[in-house]
């Protein structure tokens, strides 16, 4: 999650098809996609915010896009976007999809629903399933043993636990709450569980409290990060040029720019100071000298500088001193050949 200031977030992990998304939809009061096998194939970030207005506000955020969604069509919209991100089939992706829910009665929470842990091969699951699957702790799969431990209050799970009943089939959320209340009231064994650890409302309150406690512990670091970003933004704002609202402002800014340019030229050309351009070697005198020498070398190779020498060499053939053989014994040496030998020797 690319955010300015990262806050503690609740992450939901567990085995595939163990009801993670069902718990989240009960907390949010909205219907999420349901299917056999892998249903959640991308990290789903759910931002819940209690909003007193009667009309819920929902939208999806992914890949820099924001798409408003109606509550009745949220499951279909999530499925369509998931296919766009992770492709069709059963493959998963680490590209997050954010669902923002502003609705009356929901807890102020941010939760991340991760793809379930796949323990068997899945058709069309992609080649990277093993690398992309999330890690988590394995839940106790022995219902009878778990029920005995819960009723005896003999379960040690760090932050604690809450017993809930998920929505079944086409039940509405109101019907599901009524069925859950009846189950924990009338079931011979479930009715023995302490009511302080039963139900979706209890779970919501507990999650809000856990998140608040973690934020309090992290508050000094959060405040420090906020202060650093605020100071950086204020400094950047102060360095921005002021708005030009009149001809006088424009003329003042223009003269300031001209003056700064003149001063830079004085430093470069007259005083040989390059502190304004420490990394720009094109403005340094040494760079100019190297450029001139390179140009001289190119001119030396490309221009016919030995034309006059060619003629002199041709006229002097045979005019040797007495210590050298006459021209009849020394063959002529063409001017072009002399140039080639000169360059080969150098």
From TrEMBL:
Q: Which domain of life is it from?
A: Eukaryota
Q: Name one GO molecular function term.
A: microtubule binding
**Which ranges are annotated Polar residues under compositional bias?**
317-330
Positions of the UniProt region annotated as Disordered:
317-346
Describe the location of the Dynamin-type G domain by residue ranges: 4-124
Does the record carry Nuclease as a key word? no
Which portions of this protein are annotated as coiled-coil regions?
none
Q: Which UniProt keywords apply?
A: GTP-binding, Nucleotide-binding
Q: Which InterPro entries match?
A: Dynamin, Dynamin_GTPase, Dynamin_N, Dynamin_stalk, G_DYNAMIN_dom, P-loop_NTPase
> Does the keyword Transport feature in the UniProt annotation?
no
Q: Name one GO cellular component term.
A: cytoplasm
**What is the designated name of this protein?**
Dynamin-type G domain-containing protein
Protein source organism: Corchorus capsularis (Jute)
Organism classification, top ranks? Eukaryota, Viridiplantae, Streptophyta, Embryophyta, Tracheophyta
């Amino acid at each position: 999650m690319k955010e300015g200031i990262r806050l503690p977030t609740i992450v939901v992990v567990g085995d595939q098809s163990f009801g993670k998304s069902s718990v989240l939809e009960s907390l949010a009061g909205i219907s999420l996609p349901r299917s056999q096998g892998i249903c959640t194939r991308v990290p789903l970030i759910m931002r819940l915010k209690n909003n007193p207005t009667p009309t819920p506000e929902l939208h999806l955020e992914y890949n820099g896009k924001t798409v408003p969604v109606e509550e009745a069509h949220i499951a279909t919209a999530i499925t369509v976007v998931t296919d766009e991100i992770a492709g069709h089939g059963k493959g998963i992706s680490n590209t997050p999809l954010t669902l923002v829910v502003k609705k009356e009665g929901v807890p102020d929470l941010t939760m991340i629903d991760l793809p379930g842990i796949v323990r068997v091969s899945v058709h069309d699951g992609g080649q990277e399933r093993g690398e992309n699957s999330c890690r988590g702790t394995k839940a106790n799969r022995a219902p009878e043993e778990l029920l005995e431990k819960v009723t005896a209050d003999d379960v040690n799970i760090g932050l604690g636990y809450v017993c809930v009943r998920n929505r079944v089939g086409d039940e509405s959320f109101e019907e599901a709450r009524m069925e859950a209340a009846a189950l924990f009231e009338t079931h011979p064994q479930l009715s023995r569980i302490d009511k302080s650890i039963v139900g979706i409302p209890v779970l919501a309150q507990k999650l809000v409290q856990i998140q608040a406690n973690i934020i309090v512990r992290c508050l000094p670091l959060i405040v420090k990060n906020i202060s650093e970003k605020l100071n950086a933004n204020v400094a950047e704002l102060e360095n921005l040029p002021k708005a030009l609202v009149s001809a006088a402002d424009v003329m003042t800014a223009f003269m300031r720019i001209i003056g700064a340019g003149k001063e830079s030229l004085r430093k470069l050309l007259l005083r040989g100071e390059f502190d304004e351009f420490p990394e720009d070697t094109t403005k340094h005198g040494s760079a100019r000298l190297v450029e001139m020498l390179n140009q001289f070398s190119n001119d030396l190779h490309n221009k016919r500088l030995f034309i006059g020498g060619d003629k002199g060499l041709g006229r002097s053939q045979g005019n040797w001193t007495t210590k050298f053989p006459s021209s009849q014994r020394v063959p002529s040496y063409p001017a072009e050949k002399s140039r080639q030998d000169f360059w080969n020797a150098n």
